[in-house]
Design a protein that fits this description.
Layout: H1 2-16, E1 27-36, E2 41-50, E3 55-64, E4 67-76, E5 81-86, E6 91-96, E7 111-119, E8 127-136, E9 143-149, E10 155-162, E11 166-177, H2 203-208
Antiparallel strand pairs: 1-2, 1-11, 2-3, 3-4, 4-5, 5-6, 7-8, 8-9, 9-10, 10-11
Length: about 210
C-alpha cells in the first residue's frame, strides 16, 4: 500500500513538471512500421541509428501500391553516400546522398500538446509516460505530431503530412539503447567504392525505395 502511494506521488510530481524538448540516445536499435492515410504504402523495418557517426541502416519489407518489396539501405550522411545492399546475392550499389542528417529529437520550436500515460497508471509497470508535440514541417509544407517517452526520450510515434500519401504514421517499438552489431553500420566488403546512379529528389522516396 505504501509503495503504491509513493509511486503515485512520484508520477504526480513528474506530471506537474512541464516537459521540455529532448534528444534521443545517440545509439538506438529497434523496429518500426510505416502506414499512410491513402493506404498506398505499408512498411515494417528494423533500424540501426547512430547519431554520433550520422549513420542509419534500414532493413525493410512492405507493400507499395499492392506490390510487395524488400529493401536494405545503409545511409552514411557524413560520407554523402547510400548503399543498397542485397546480402543474399552479395550485391551492392553506392549512390550519392545529399540529404541532411536529422537526429531523433523534439525540435526546439515544437509545441507541447500534452502528457499522458499509455496503458494504465493503476499499478507499477502497467503504463508508459509520454509527451506529444506538434509543429510545422520545414517550408510550411504541413504539420507533424510526434510522441516521445518522458523518461529516456525514446520515440514512440510520428505522424506528418505528405503530398503523395496524406498523413504518414511511423510507430517505433522494441527499442534498445546501443548497437549490438556495429559492423552492420559499415558497408560490406563487396560494396563498390565508386558512386553510381543519382539520388532521388525526394528523401521519402529514398527512405522507402519508391523511386
Amino acid at each position: 500500500m505504501r509503495l503504491s502511494v509513493v509511486l503515485a506521488c512520484l508520477l504526480a510530481a513528474c506530471m506537474a513538471e512541464k516537459p521540455r524538448p529532448c534528444t534521443s540516445p545517440p545509439l538506438l536499435t529497434g523496429d518500426l512500421t510505416v502506414s499512410t492515410q491513402n493506404e498506398k504504402l505499408w512498411v515494417f523495418a528494423k533500424f540501426l541509428y547512430d547519431a554520433m557517426g550520422q549513420r542509419v541502416r534500414l532493413m525493410e519489407m512492405g507493400n507499395y501500391q499492392n506490390k510487395s518489396f524488400t529493401y536494405d539501405a545503409l545511409l552514411l550522411f557524413r560520407e554523402g553516400a547510400m548503399y543498397e545492399i542485397n546480402e543474399k546475392a552479395r550485391t551492392c550499389k553506392k549512390s550519392p546522398l545529399k540529404a541532411a542528417f536529422h537526429p531523433m529529437e523534439i525540435p526546439k520550436n515544437a509545441s507541447l500538446l500534452g502528457q499522458a500515460v499509455v496503458g494504465s497508471s493503476s499499478r507499477p509497470g502497467e503504463g508508459l509516460l509520454v509527451n506529444t508535440w506538434t509543429g510545422d514541417l520545414p517550408g510550411n509544407t504541413g504539420k507533424y505530431i510526434t510522441t516521445f517517452t518522458e523518461f529516456g526520450c525514446i520515440p514512440v510515434s510520428t505522424a506528418y503530412q505528405t503530398k503523395d500519401f496524406g498523413w504518414m504514421l511511423t510507430s517505433f517499438f522494441n527499442n534498445v539503447i546501443g548497437i549490438p552489431d556495429p559492423n552492420r553500420l559499415n558497408p560490406p566488403d563487396y560494396c563498390p567504392t565508386e558512386m553510381s546512379g543519382e539520388q532521388p529528389g525526394d528523401f521519402a522516396s529514398l527512405f522507402f525505395n519508391l523511386h
